[in-house]
Design a protein that fits this description.
This protein is mainly alpha-helical. The chain has 9 helices and no strands. The relative contact order is 0.16. The radius of gyration is 20 Å and the shape is elongated.
C-alpha cells in the first residue's frame, strides 16, 4: 500500500504540473495562431524528439535520483502531448461566434481565453489527463524496476516488482504490485 501511495502521489503531482504547463502553452498557441503557433510547434517538435527514458537513465548516473528530482525531469517532458489537444480546441474555438462577439464587445484576450474558450476546451483536456496519470505510474515503476528511479529501499511499485523477480519462490511479492 505504501508503494502504491508513492507512485500515485508522484503521478498526481506530475499530472497537475503537466496540466498547468500544457494548457497554458496550448492555449497561447491555439488562440494567437500565426507565428506564435508556428514557433511553438517547432519547439515542441524538437523537444519531443528527445528520448526521455534514456535521458533519465543517463542523468541518474550523475545524480542520485529522488522523488523531486524525478518529478522535475518528468515534468519537463510530460506536458508535450497535452499541448496538441488544447491547441486544437483553441484553434476551433477562437473562430466561434460568441468569441467574435466577445472580441467585438471589447473584452481582452485574457478574459476571452479564460471565460469563453477554456471552459469549452476542458472537456477534451480532462479526458486526456488519465493517460498522463497512468503513464506517470508506469514510467516510475519501470525506472524503479530497472534501478534508475527512487533511491534503493524506497517503497514503490517498481521496487516491489524487482523484489518479486529476485524471489521467484514467493510470487505474491511481484503479483501484488
Amino acid at each position: 500500500i505504501f508503494g502504491a501511495r508513492v507512485s500515485i502521489l508522484f503521478a498526481l503531482a506530475l499530472t497537475a504540473i503537466s496540466a498547468v504547463i500544457g494548457i497554458a502553452a496550448g492555449a497561447l498557441q491555439g488562440y494567437y495562431g500565426g507565428w506564435v503557433d508556428l514557433l511553438g510547434q517547432r519547439i515542441l517538435e524538437v523537444w519531443s524528439g528527445l528520448p526521455v527514458l534514456y535521458l533519465l537513465i543517463i542523468l541518474s548516473g550523475f545524480v542520485e535520483p529522488n522523488f523531486w528530482w524525478l518529478l522535475g525531469i518528468m515534468a519537463l517532458f510530460s506536458w508535450l502531448a497535452l499541448v496538441d489537444v488544447v491547441r486544437a480546441e483553441f484553434l476551433r474555438g477562437r473562430n466561434l461566434e460568441y468569441v467574435k462577439a466577445a472580441r467585438a464587445l471589447g473584452l481582452g484576450d485574457a478574459k476571452i481565453i479564460r471565460r469563453h474558450i477554456l471552459p469549452n476546451a476542458m472537456t477534451a483536456t480532462l479526458s486526456y489527463l488519465p493517460f498522463i496519470l497512468t503513464g506517470a505510474i508506469s514510467t516510475l515503476s519501470a525506472l524503479d524496476f530497472l534501478g534508475f528511479g527512487m533511491p534503493a529501499g524506497s517503497a514503490s511499485l517498481g521496487e516491489l516488482i524487482g523484489q518479486g523477480k529476485q524471489n521467484l519462490p514467493a510470487p505474491w511479492l511481484g503479483l501484488t504490485a
